[in-house]
């Protein structure tokens, strides 16, 4: 910790202690929790709202600033950086009280959230819809790999796959039954490459279940191997314990 940049933190020994002291001075109720193994330059501000983890707080190395990151159910919902530790305290209180992303940004201009985070507040169907739009845009942006584009479009046309959260890893298309990371991958399809067949897999880079000559055939095979009665993707992660 650079005491020239952070004399207030150095005086009390850690970021966590500085947050607690300042919150008390401001009359704001906060619960500060350890982060990064109890590092003196990182801390968390606890949330009492189900589905929201602690607001992570960390410091800059070369100039004075405080960064924050708030995650909920496998999605980063809010982030930002400011030179004001008091604003971090206020952000932590608002985050912990369950203020909406719009309210958080309106009250503290240094905070920002992504389109995916905004979709998360509307529910899992909105996240899935946004992700499919992103995947289709990615496919259009890869004209040199037409097999990937064909796979994305064929999968989008299949209702059993379209209701799941689609993502790509090394061009393999995975389908998750939850919208947050880590994903719960139900099935995956690797596109044809250099005249190789499409490959249907239970999980990316694992044992191949079936091979297919076309994207449509691969999608039909993948759909047939989904668990019986599987419904639309839900909010949360593969760990299901948030």
Question: What does it look like?
Answer:
This protein is an alpha+beta fold and 242 residues long. The protein is 36% helix and 22% strand. It has nine helices and eleven strands. It has helices at 7-12, 15-26, 85-96, 101-107, 115-122, 124-140, 146-156, 159-162, 215-224, and strands spanning 32-33, 42-45, 55-59, 66-72, 75-82, 111-112, 165-169, 172-176, 185-190, 198-201, 208-212. It has a six-stranded antiparallel sheet with strand order 1-2-3-4-5-6. Strands 7-8-9-10-11 form a five-stranded antiparallel sheet. α7 crosses α9. The radius of gyration is 22 Å and the shape is elongated.
Summed up:
The protein is of the alpha+beta class. The chain has 9 helices and 11 strands.
* Rg value: 22 Å
Count the strands?
A: 11
Q: What shape does the CA trace take? A: elongated
Task: Report low-confidence residues grouped into runs of 5 or more.
Answer: none
Main sheet characteristics: 6 strands, antiparallel
Q: Give the class from helix and strand content and strand pairing.
A: alpha+beta
- Count of DSSP helices? 9
Mean pLDDT: 92
How helix-rich are the residues, as a percent range? 25-40%
Strand order of the largest sheet: 1-2-3-4-5-6
State the order of secondary-structure elements, H for helix, E for strand: HHEEEEEHHEHHHHEEEEEH
End-to-end gap: 32 Å
């Amino acid at each position: 910790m650079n005491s020239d940049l952070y004399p207030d933190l150095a005086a009390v020994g850690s970021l966590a202690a500085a947050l607690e002291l300042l919150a008390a001075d401001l009359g704001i109720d906060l619960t500060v929790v350890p982060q990064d193994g109890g590092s003196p330059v990182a801390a968390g501000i606890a949330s009492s709202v189900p589905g929201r983890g602690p607001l992570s707080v960390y410091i800059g190395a070369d100039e004075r600033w405080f960064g924050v990151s708030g995650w909920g159910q496998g999605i980063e919902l809010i982030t930002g950086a400011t030179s004001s530790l008091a604003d971090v305290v206020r952000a932590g209180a608002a985050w912990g009280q369950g203020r909406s992303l719009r309210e958080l940004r309106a009250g503290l201009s240094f905070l920002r959230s992504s389109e995916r985070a905004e979709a998360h507040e509307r529910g899992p169907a909105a996240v899935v819809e946004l992700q499919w739009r992103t995947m289709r845009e990615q496919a259009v942006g890869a004209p040199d790999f037409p097999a990937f584009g064909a796979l994305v479009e064929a999968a989008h046309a299949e209702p059993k796959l379209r209701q799941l959260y689609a993502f790509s890893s090394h061009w393999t298309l995975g389908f998750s039954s939850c919208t947050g990371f880590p994903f719960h991958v139900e099935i995956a399809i690797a596109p044809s490459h250099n005249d190789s067949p499409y490959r249907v897999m239970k999980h990316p880079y694992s044992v191949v279940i079936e091979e297919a000559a076309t994207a449509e055939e691969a999608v039909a095979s993948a759909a047939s191997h989904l668990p019986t009665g599987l419904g639309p993707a839900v909010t949360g992660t593969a760990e299901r314990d948030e």
